[in-house]
Amino acid sequence: MAKDTLILGIETSCDDTSIAVVKNGRELLSNVVSSQLVHKEFGGVIPEVAARHHDERIIFILEKALKEAAVALKDIDAIAVTKGPGLVGSLLIGISLAKAISFSLDLPLIAVNHLAGHIYASNFVSNLEFPLISLIVSGGHTLLVYMAKHLSFEVLGKTLDDACGEVFDKVARFLDLPYPGGPYIDKLSKNGKLKYFLPKALLKTKNYNFSFSGLKTAVRKLVEELKETKEFEENIENIAYSFQAAVVDVLVTKTMEAVYAMDVKNLVLGGGVAANSFLREKLIERSKKLGLKVFIPPLNLCTDNAAMIASVGTYQYLEKDFSDLALNPDPNFPL
Ligand code: KG4
Ligand code: ZN
After folding, report:
1. CB of residue 113 inside a 6 A radius of ligand 1
2. Does the CB atom of residue 82 touch ligand 1 within 6 A?
3. From ligand 2's centre to the CA of 226, what distance in Å?
4. How confident is residue 78, by pLDDT bands cut at 50, 70 and 90?
5. Quick one: pLDDT band at residue 51, thresholds 50, 70, 90?
6. Out of 41, 52, 300, 334, which residue is the most buried by the measure of CB atoms under 10 Å away?
7. pLDDT band per the 50, 70, 90 thresholds, residue 140
8. Taking a C-beta distance cutoff of 8 angstroms, is the pair 100, 306 a contact?
9. How far apart are CA 168 and CA 148, in angstroms?
10. Using the 8-state DSSP alphabet, how is residue 210 labeled?
11. Taking each helix axis from N to C terminus, what angle separates 182-189 and 232-262, rounded to the nearest 10 degrees?
12. Is 301 in the pocket of ligand 1 (CB under 6 A)?
């Protein structure tokens, strides 16, 4: 029988400090995530503060992840760490720890792309099947990816301006909601209806790129107008719903066009915005009609976590795709 592969994953690309132990790429032994609530006060992530918090917490998180998995560092086969994209100071904390463990225990070091991680979060739901199309929607990224096999990524399109999650957070701020605002908009929308017809940029273009800045500006203007006429409070749920419906329509339409054009039967959703209930519902609905198999991570694996990094790292480990100790963060690491 083949030997089990145990990978330690480390993720510190933004404001979540996370370490996980994953067996054979799909079995979660532990996945400790510490979210930095401090950024709520500022309404966004302050890079220096994020890096300092990673530094303060990371050893504690490591100990907790090993303890929960009931393994020791000597049982681990390799260390997989996020190389980018992300905040350079934050990435550096994870990479420094990964290098230290790799050097002291002579373990292979594996550099993982954070966006690949968001796709592989679905690997914990069921074995990824290829070829597939993946829609990645997070706080920093929005892209459509085609994969013919493991670790093969072809970016079909991406956002030309703001990321999807970023727009959710900005719109939430216009609506005077706390940060990060995505989950609040999701919740408010449940009691709203389609009242405002907002721009759906690039919906009809024959490519897979996205643009959300026009929508963001339209919501800002709408809120200003409604505040002046004192109709804001009574319509806050309708604004949230109308905004969310516009975003989801563009995301689902483009994704289905890619699925059709690339002739795939597997669809993977990933990234923080994959937690959005309306997006999940619409994608599942459309996929059913087309007979597609949909992979959607559970809510705790949609947002940043190290389990997804360890999962990608397992396939890189099998390919012996290792890095040396000169590994550095790459804030714009392409997929
Ligand atoms: O993937 P993620 O944890 O971090 C990045 O890699 O960027 O994504 C965070 C984003 C935030 O913008 C947050 O507002 C959004 O995911 N988000 C949601 C929901 N839950 C989290 N957006 C819409 N609806 C949600 N339920
Ligand atoms: Zn992310």
Report:
1. no
2. no
3. 34
4. very high
5. confident
6. 52
7. very high
8. no
9. 31
10. B
11. 100
12. no
Nearest CA to ligand 1 atom 14: 182
Mean pLDDT of the chain: 95
8 A C-beta contact, residue 159 and residue 143: yes
Amino acid at 238: N
Q: Is the CB of 270 under 6 A from ligand 1?
A: no
- Contact between 327 and 103 under an 8 Å Cβ cutoff? The reply is no
Contacts of residue 201, defined as CB under 8 A and 6 or more positions apart, other chains included, come to 210, 211, 212, 214, 215, 250
Average pLDDT over residues 216-242: 97
Question: Could you tell me how far CA 166 lies from the centroid of its own chain?
Answer: 12
Q: What is the pTM of this model?
A: 0.95
CB atoms within 10 A of CB 232: 18
Q: Considering Cα of 268, then 278, then 187, then 213, what sign does the dihedral take?
A: positive
Query: Is residue 42 over pLDDT 80?
Result: no
